[in-house]
Amino acid sequence: ESYLDYPYGPNEMRAERVQTALRAWGQETFNTLLGQGQARDYYRDATRNGHGQLQLVIASDAPRVLSWPWEALHDPQLGDLAQHCRIERQLDTIADPLPLHKGLSRERVGILLVTARPYQGDVAYRSISRPLVELIHSEGLPAEVKVLRPPSFEQLRRELEEHRGAYHIVHFDGHGGFGQMGAGGADKFKGPQGQLVFEKDDGSQEAITGAQLSQLLREYRIPIAVLNACQSAMINEQADDAFASVATALLRAGVRSVVAMGYSLYVSGARQFLPAFYRQLFLTGSVADATRGGRQAMFLHPQRRGEIQLQDWLVPVLYQQDPLQLEFAKQPSTQQQALAPTPKPESKIPESARVEASGAPHGVIGRDSAVLELERASRRAPAALLLHGLGGVGKTTLARGYIEWLAHTQGLPGKVIWQSFADVRSFGYVRNRLVEEIFGTDAMALPDEKKWTALLQALRSQALLIVWDNFESASGAADAGVDSALPREERQALKQFLEQLRESKTKVLITSRSDEAWLGTTACYRIALGGLQGEERQALAQAILADQGLHLDAKDEDSAKLIDSLKGHPLMMRAILPRLGSINAKQLRQDFEQYVPQADSDDPVEQRLYATLRYIEEGLPADLKPLLYPIGLHEGYIYTTFLADMAKEAQLPFTTEQAQQALERLEVAGLVRRLGKNVYEMHPALARYARHQGARLLADAEDASAWEQGFVAIMAQLADHCAPKALHEQRPVFHIYGGSFERALGMAQRASDLQAYGALMQALANYALNRRDFPLAAMRFEAYARNCEQLGREDLAAAPYHQLGRVAQERRNLAMAEAWYCKALEIFERQGNVESAASCYHQLGTVAAERRKFETAENWYRKSLEIKEHQGNHQGAAMTYHQLGIVAHERRIFEAADAWYRKALEIFERQRDEHGAASTYQQLSRLAEERLNVEVVEEERNFEAAEAWCRKALEIFERQGNEHDAASCYGQLGNLALARPNLDMADAWYRKALAIFERRGNEHDTANSYHNLGRVAEARLDFDVAEVWYHKSMGIEERQDNEHGAAITYHRLGRVALAHKPPDLEAADAWNRKALEIFERHNDEHNAAISRDALQRLQQIAKCDDEGPAQTRASG
């Protein structure tokens, strides 16, 4: 069993003797049992059509008989029988197993994987489980694998209790043994017994006997157990009974099939056995056939370490008693085929958190010890798990691989949030992104205290995984290569945030080149990530060389030295090893290591990383080397055309073709990754090197300044272009260039380039405004305005004043919004900037409309429209037509509203402005709904038109990911369902809208949803419930000073008061008078008339009450 530790000399001779003895025993036993007499005739009859259907069953209760190596039976005419037929053991005197659990799936095989690694220097954590998981995932097998976390016996009990009937197979991957139990306890006087080694919660070992495990699996009726644990099927003549081994103990407990190991089995042998076992299990549904398939794979691939071969295929043994046939696993059932495909586990992973996003062509190779450490660390108290190591060592790739592993083994939390710190400038930005991810965009508009409290509560109570990638970019590690880090107070706030999450359900996985000592130990658990080791290095090297059609010769000393010199660093290996296609290993190592002494570091790995990058630099043509400097100015992503545009701005002689050539050469070295359309993602190690070393490559020192000016100019042009776009159009641009915008902004500010600074700052502020991050938007607009004021440029300051009005209006501070618009307008008018003045007129119109001053609003709109039409600004005119439609709509001039909407829509559709068109479709739906109450003859047609317009808008909003406007459509569909009336459908639409508004913290629309749910309850005559909803709505409306909205709710409360049994006439009268006073003040004659009618009816009812109860009852 320890043969491979020293397979030479006496051990080799002993191995040969064992093999000879086994062959002799197998042949002699075959001849004795099946080679003569009537048994031979039976055997020949059974195998007349081949051995594929032959099943040999060894049934006995004698430990001595069960311990014999039956898998070694050898037919002289055929060979080893175990390679051709089914061989299994059985017990003679044993009760029938209990019936299967009623809930056991007939669609997918449930596998619970227990992987225990309690020892230092243990077998690689995923050496067995990963091939199994990848097999099921890659071939789409009908199975679900869950890894038991932690792999303790107590957790196994909890898992089986909480998921009764979920698992067909419990698969134990770990250590086992057979021997005397320790002294003490009930096992004190027993002979040798089988054991499995689980882990305790702290990761230390916990030996569990077969008897203990069998009692547990019997209780939960597990039909199949797979034990790739050494000696899990071992039994010898000294055993007290046939149930001494783990395998036989499980069989006695009612487990129907037990696959176990009769002796110790090397991991490399298990790697051959288990994937073949499971593949055959899903092909045939038979555990016996699967076991034979696994043995065949071991027989065909006998190499266990290097070129050393073992005949260990007879180690796996099978015990069965009334086995379960998994025939349903062989092919999809009719029911499965009729259903939609089962969502893949990785569908829950955001794109940025997937392994493919790392651009690592060979995925995650090895790293089992790091994955195990991450899993254990996730069960500790600190919220942060810090992966730290050199740039290019694979921290980000490992983080993504860890997430994928959790997804494929049912360990992934409910939500994964990936945040890159490359463009982070404040902790508030980080928190707002978390708020946006968890609660939605609208929630960012809530007061900070309310946001942060809700965020902490959600993170503490919900299982989430947050990833902070490239953390050194914000924390200020010395080698981060960034212009600035988070200020000290921001870092302290971040640290405090992590400390507040201690012992919460949320974990924060951080990747950094630094160990971030300032985070301390209570907030953070650190895992140092070095280079790949041993077989992992060899595996990656072979994968890299295979891409070049090369083969790694493990015996070649020069190749071994070259690989060792790269320290298992993936980036260095991907950059250097492909050169073996044109240069020998010895020369390549010499060429590469000549740059090691030039590195400004004492760390040998850092020295070699520098040498790698310098070697790649030297391999570039001389005319392309200077392009490293402008490449390094970017953050994260580069576009080849922009490099050429930057060169044109800088008046430097570089073309798009040269930029493309440089990036293609860097791509070959693994330093950039092409994403399509000449956009490349840059490795952080290249960015750092280019920023530190790029200036050395320039022909003239002044070229650096010229390149920076060109970079700022191009980024400013791009930012200015996307600033006025809708959010769904801005998102992809800011995803790729947001970090570069931030870098360019800092450069523009230092260079006092006010024009570029303004374009960049306003674009970043507009993006924040569109994302409803109002504090950040206001901060950016205010910063730009101050800068303009300090330089005496009020002409430029007017633009941020106008945008600050938009921020205030979104916050429903109409007085402040009006003040900002007027301040901007005064400047625009004085400067003769009629186009910008028209925008101010338009916004002042929206403020007046929200105040229900429709005549004033119409005047502002017409003033704006006159300029827009005169200038041929069709898009701007369409927006104003739309608003004039809303004014006519509110005034209940439906024909005029319809005409304005259609005039706007014609332009939106012609200019392919989907968002503008969808907003108008939604208004046309509301208009058709309003007409239901006044055009009875056309009722059905109006219903159909209202629903058609609304669904047309909804399709666009959902496709654009515009959840806020989609929720408004859900509310509108609820209105239409209520009008039909279909109360259940209305209730469902309103609740769907409400869930979004509440999650996003949008109180205004939340109040509307509460009001609408009150209308549904009122229609159901459930007046108590209706009153609760109306009071919830009223509380928000009054708090937000939304008088008109509150008045509509007062009127509904008056209706409910009247509908109570007995009616509360006094309350009904008070509510209606309160509503009427507001409607009259707001010149809302339509609703005022409804309130007056209600008050007249109340007077009539009160008069009837005065005349007597009989008349009151009659009128009622």
Task: Describe what you observe in this structure.
This protein is an alpha/beta fold. Among the domains are: 8-46 and 55-90, no CATH class; 109-336, Rossmann fold (3-Layer(aba) Sandwich), CATH 3.40.50; 346-530, P-loop containing nucleotide triphosphate hydrolases (Rossmann fold, 3-Layer(aba) Sandwich); 1002-1116, Serine Threonine Protein Phosphatase 5, Tetratricopeptide repeat (Alpha Horseshoe). The chain is 57% helix and 10% strand. The chain contains 45 helices and 22 strands. The strands form six sheets. Strands 5, 6, 7, 8, 9, 10, 11 and 14 form an eight-stranded mixed beta sheet that branches. It has a five-stranded parallel beta sheet with strand order 16-17-18-15-19, with helices on both faces. A hairpin with a 5-residue loop joins β8 and β9 (205-209). 46% of the residues are buried. Mean pLDDT is 87; it is low at 181-191, 239-243, 333-341, 479-484 and 1110-1116. Keywords: Repeat, TPR repeat. Residues 345-354 have a biased composition (Basic and acidic residues). It holds the Pfam family CHAT.
Name the descriptors.
eight-stranded mixed β-sheet, 22 strands, five-stranded parallel β-sheet, 1116 residues, P-loop_NTPase, 10% strand, alpha/beta, repeat, Rossmann fold
Describe how the helices and strands are arranged:
Elements: H1 9-34, H2 37-46, E1 55-59, H3 63-66, E2 74-75, E3 79-80, E4 86-90, E5 109-115, H4 129-139, E6 143-147, H5 153-162, E7 169-179, E8 193-199, E9 205-209, H6 210-219, E10 224-229, H7 246-252, E11 257-261, H8 267-284, H9 287-300, E12 303-305, E13 308-309, E14 316-320, H10 334-338, H11 368-377, E15 384-388, H12 395-408, E16 415-420, H13 427-439, H14 448-461, E17 464-469, H15 472-475, H16 488-500, E18 507-512, E19 524-528, H17 534-547, H18 557-565, H19 570-576, H20 585-593, H21 604-619, H22 628-633, E20 637-639, H23 640-650, H24 656-668, E21 672-676, E22 679-682, H25 684-693, H26 702-722, H27 727-750, H28 754-770, H29 774-790, H30 794-810, H31 814-831, H32 834-850, H33 854-871, H34 874-890, H35 894-910, H36 914-931, H37 939-959, H38 963-979, H39 983-1000, H40 1003-1019, H41 1023-1039, H42 1043-1059, H43 1065-1081, H44 1085-1107, H45 1109-1115
Parallel strand pairs: 1-4, 5-6, 5-7, 7-10, 10-11, 15-18, 15-19, 16-17, 17-18
Antiparallel strand pairs: 2-3, 7-8, 8-9, 11-14, 12-13, 20-22, 21-22
Helix pairs in contact: 4-8, 6-7, 8-9, 13-14, 18-20, 19-21, 23-24, 23-26, 26-27, 26-28, 27-28, 28-29, 28-30, 29-30, 30-31, 30-32, 31-32, 32-33, 32-34, 33-34, 34-35, 34-36, 35-36, 36-37, 36-38, 37-38, 38-39, 38-40, 39-40, 40-41, 40-42, 41-42, 42-43, 42-44, 43-44, 44-45
